[in-house]
């Protein structure tokens, strides 16, 4: 039996009121997709504002196995850069060993099919938050003329004669499917339209990256994207957008602990619904030149929320709104409309004394004044961070196992918390 990794637990002493400043790094959900899309052009593509997280290393490993040369510079928490040198003939098989660690691996599917006419990508793993079927990805590639199927645990897509543009309507604005269809369509013959496309800031960032490589894309940031295929793309340099989910995490941390945090790098225009909800809970939100300040000087008021695709309330922020409501004044209903297994987090929160009942997609929460410390376990990135914030407003000591999940999405989480006044250690 393998031993648990070292330092895979957070130990938190509750009662801190978080005050100070944090700087948000580049967005995990963007940088991984940009790295995958670099496969579309031969030569050296440079991506900056790269976060120091485990998933970047996994994606770098995956690209290396596909024949790229990858250099990660300045990984010490600063503004890191990754340089990806893509060969004329990349390999086409992304093995299970790496893909199982990270769902974003599926993003090499579109670029490989477009570039070399074949891709074999193991079915992804990553967070335990639901099935997230790949049907939309496969249907989209088939619409462009690829033959795609699942065999022996791999998605296999072939288009030996290249891809041809077409009109695609997505049943659901899936981020991953929008990305894979876009990165395949940029090299397809003719025009592709994606109707009901995802509109997340990460999608906009990817579009702008592709345009800087020479792609022709209209309707960026809208539900209808039009892509006119080009013969070839060129390598580029691009700066990743900042991470709205990390920015949101710090905003909730301020609200929950009745603190005052200035979040540098936060983009208020990417967080409108969330900031509105925090304002409803009683937080004072101020825009500053390079970010947002969130201050709370009383117990939060309970707020109802339903998660929706962007620009709605992000599913990734669900654990934080539930954690805040668990110590808020009043009763709240939180509805999850995107991933079916997000509520695994609730069972752990209940161990800290939260009064929550689950009915299908709904969590009914009666706020109490304080949680109580206990051992709990993280099941995914955001659940892990949510449990750490809940521990900050719990009596006594809490341990959160599965800290590695949090490392996949948050660079230096414990260090940043300590700098704001929290009593948090890794062990």
Tell me the overall shape. elongated
Give the rounded overall mean pLDDT: 93
- Point out poorly predicted stretches: 126-132
Strand content: 25-35%
**Strand count:** 26
Give a verbal description of the structure.
About 0% of the residues have low confidence. With about 425 residues, this protein is α/β, with parallel strands linked by helices. The protein has a 4-stranded mixed β-sheet. Helix 6 runs parallel beside helix 7 and helix 8 runs parallel beside helix 10. The chain folds into 2 domains: about 200 residues, UDP-n-acetylglucosamine1-carboxyvinyl-transferase, Chain; about 140 residues, UDP-n-acetylglucosamine1-carboxyvinyl-transferase, Chain.
Task: List its traits.
427 residues; alpha/beta; UDP-n-acetylglucosamine1-carboxyvinyl-transferase, Chain; 4-stranded mixed beta sheet; 14 helices; 26 strands; 30% helix; elongated
Tell me briefly what this model is.
With 427 residues, the protein is an alpha/beta fold. It is built from 14 helices and 26 strands. A four-stranded mixed sheet has the order 23-25-1-26. Strands 2-15-17-16 form a four-stranded mixed sheet, covered by helices on one side.
């Amino acid at each position: 039996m393998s031993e648990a990794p070292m330092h895979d637990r957070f130990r938190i002493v509750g009662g801190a009121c978080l005050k100070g400043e944090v700087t948000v790094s580049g967005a995990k959900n963007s940088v991984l997709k940009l790295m995958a899309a670099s496969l579309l052009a031969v030569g050296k593509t440079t991506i900056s504002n790269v976060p120091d997280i485990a998933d970047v290393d996994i994606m770098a490993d995956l690209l290396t196995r596909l024949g790229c040369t990858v250099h990660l510079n300045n990984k010490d928490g600063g503004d890191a850069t990754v340089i990806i040198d893509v060969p004329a003939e990349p390999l086409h098989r992304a093995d299970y060993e790496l893909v199982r660690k990270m769902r974003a691996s599926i993003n090499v599917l579109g670029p490989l099919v477009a570039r070399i006419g074949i891709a074999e990508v193991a079915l992804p793993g990553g967070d335990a938050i639901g099935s997230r079927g790949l049907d939309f990805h496969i249907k989209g590639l088939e619409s462009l003329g690829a033959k795609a199927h699942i065999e022996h645990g791999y998605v296999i897509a072939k288009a030996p004669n290249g891809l041809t543009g077409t009109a695609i309507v997505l049943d659901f604005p899936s981020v991953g499917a929008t990305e894979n269809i876009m990165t395949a369509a940029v090299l397809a013959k003719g025009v592709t339209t994606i109707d009901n496309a995802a509109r997340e800031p990460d999608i906009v960032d990817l579009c702008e990256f592709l345009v800087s490589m020479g792609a022709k894309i209209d309707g960026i940031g809208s539900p209808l994207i039009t892509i006119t295929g080009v013969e070839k793309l060129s390598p580029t340099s691009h700066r990743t957008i900042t991470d709205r989910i990390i920015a949101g995490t710090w905003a909730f941390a301020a609200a929950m602990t009745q603190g005052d945090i200035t979040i540098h790098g936060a983009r208020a225009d990417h967080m409108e619904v969330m900031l509105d909800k925090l304002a409803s809970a009683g937080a004072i939100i101020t825009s500053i030149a390079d970010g947002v300040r969130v201050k709370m000087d009383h117990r939060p008021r309970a707020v109802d929320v339903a998660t929706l695709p962007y620009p709605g309330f992000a599913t990734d922020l669900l654990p934080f709104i539930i954690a805040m409501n668990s110590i808020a004044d009043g009763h709240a209903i939180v509805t999850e409309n995107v991933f079916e297994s997000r509520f695994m987090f609730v069972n752990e929160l209940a161990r800290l004394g939260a009064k929550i009942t689950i009915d299908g997609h709904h969590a009914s929460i009666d706020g109490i004044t304080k949680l109580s410390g206990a051992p709990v376990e993280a099941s995914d990135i955001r659940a892990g961070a949510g449990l750490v914030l809940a521990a900050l407003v719990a009596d006594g000591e809490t341990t959160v196992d599965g800290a590695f999940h949090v490392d996949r999405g948050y660079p230096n989480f414990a260090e940043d918390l300590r700098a704001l006044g929290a009593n948090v250690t890794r062990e």
